[in-house]
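Each field is listed here:
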Amino acid sequence: MKKISLLAALILVAACKEESKTREPITVNYPTTKKVDTVDNYFGTDVPDPYRWLEDDRSEETEAWVKTQNATTFGYLDKIPFREDLKNRLEKLWNYEKVGSPFKEGNYTYYYKNNGLQNQYVVYRKKEGGEEEVFLDPNTFSEDGTTSLMGLSFTKDGSKAAYLISEGGSDWRKGIIIDAESKEIVEDTLVDIKFSGISWKGNDGFYYSSYDKPEGSELSAKTDQHKLYFHKLGTPQSEDKIVFGGTPEEKHRYVGGYVSEDENYLFITASISTSGNKLFMMDLSQDNPELITILDDTDSDTYVIDNEGSKLFLVTNREAPNKKVVVVDASSPSPENWEDLIPETENVLTAGTGGGYFFTEYMVDAISKVLQYDYDGNLVREVELPGVGSAGGFGGKKEDKEFYFSFTNYNTPGSLYKYNVETGEYEQYWKPQIDFNPDDYESKQVFYNSKDGTKVPMIITYKKGTELNGKNPTILYGYGGFNVSLTPSFSIVNAVWMEQGGVYAVPNLRGGGEYGKKWHIAGTKLNKQNVFDDFIAAAEYLIDNNYTSKEYLAIRGGSNGGLLVGATMTQRPDLMQVALPAVGVMDMLRYHTFTAGAGWAYDYGTSEDSEEMFNYIKGYSPVHNVKEGTEYPATLVTTGDHDDRVVPAHSFKFAAELQEKQAGDQPTLIRIETNAGHGAGTPVSKTIEQYADIFGFTFFNMGYDELPNQAVLKEFKD
């Protein structure tokens, strides 16, 4: 059993403390993690996998390991003197009413609302001039708040609804059908729905997608044949008809179906990975509709956004990396007949529809710009947004004359605005009453050069008047993958960090979608190292420009961002004081063998593709690059024991490697949330506890005996 202790003498922040002082070290006794003799051979190279046994999430041995690791971790966290102060401040700041954009279904207007500290948002509704009433309260679904509402869909007339629930954060869902007026359940619960929405066909039934339940563990066993079903109301789920995906020829990892607003067409997407899809359609006005191919390759991301009769409008990045809107007739919908309606620009397009118009949001260096077009492709107006940041929600039904959009940035809590589609005028509909003053903070966008000279944008947010003396506690957050764009948005937890004098920095790394498909591809497969280089260069920029220094820098990311943190800290352990990898993809040689992980191969490639790809992946895989005798930063790995997206074995193995090989005095701990998944639907109470632990660990390992800004804590206590 290996022992380490924290440094007894810690570097203290000069702005907060005049004199240095010492404290009693916290000794960590790590549990022993047994090793096995498992070895895999890739292209003639033997690769040991001594912690393979931790992949068995159903074994008593793994369960015991989780308990002992948590006991060790919480034993450490319990000794952090200001952890409870952080939790209290998070609760206080979190405790304000939050409202989602209203939407009309039948005779009611519905909206999501949280009164402050409710574990899950509640769905309310009211008739025009009527009283507000609760429609669905997910807080009643389970005693501990870990069962969440993960989808809600109404029939076109609003008379019926179906909703999906997740238990313990799992991606496997249950479907419940209700009469919308009475709110009574009308038939048996559907089970085993995964990676799916619900799309109604009239009042007869709806389409949904799922996999056959795998043999072995439902949390980690491989799932790779997605199927689209139609559920006819009044019939058992066992009789649900497979619409697409049931044959070897139709085998795809991700299949989805959605019905057009006029209910005349069913559109089906089919993908083998997280990027690129085939596209099919069925004419639902026919008695036995045939499957019609729109697009029979996966070389683009293409979907139908709307239709007018037989005229189809599609959003695509086919021969347009930044996306465009095209139009085609349903009688001959293949690409050679597409005509540009809203051409590609130098900025990435996201399109929505509402009130008989297109609304195109463009990312200009990750900042929103919104244009309104008519259905002939004529520009109607640019929507003058409330400020510089991220706008969302531009869309609604065809008959809507007004809808709601949201606006936020890193230091401005999200507000809602009611938009008139004909005049372009809008008014603030709802503004949060939060104990946080955005005017005290500022965001600035900078551009820095990565290792190969590529210019990368980064937004840095902090309290006005912050002295750039190299001693500001800083979180560098990143993702860099799967065409995901990180745009400015407000976060309560980041507000608490910045209240304490913290700097929050977010670079837009390659692998993301901020600059279109080319930017995405530049961070995939044999280009994946570009993402890590971009992140490392961001850290170096913050240090070189005196925002922070190594002693006050923490790096953080989740999922693919957890991989980012794991790769960065193993490549440059000297660069940061704290590493916070969350639900990360850490074993890159085996990620594709779990659940739907093989679908990520578009971004990563796999260790089985070729010897070149194997060697490249092994060169950065976090689990395989923890080296004996290296001083790693203080590390708090976080995961959930029910994560069936990125299975917790990734984090288990990485933590075990760090605990065995850490040569320095910094702690390497793992915090495993029980009865929790990849993150979506996590109860507010659990989220607050998690961030109190994460921020407490971070400040403590940056050398703080008390929080940097005690005045804030005193103010809210008073």
User: Anything to note?
Assistant: DSSP finds eleven helices and 41 strands in the chain. The chain has a mean pLDDT of 91. The CA atoms of residues 217 and 681 lie 22 Å apart.
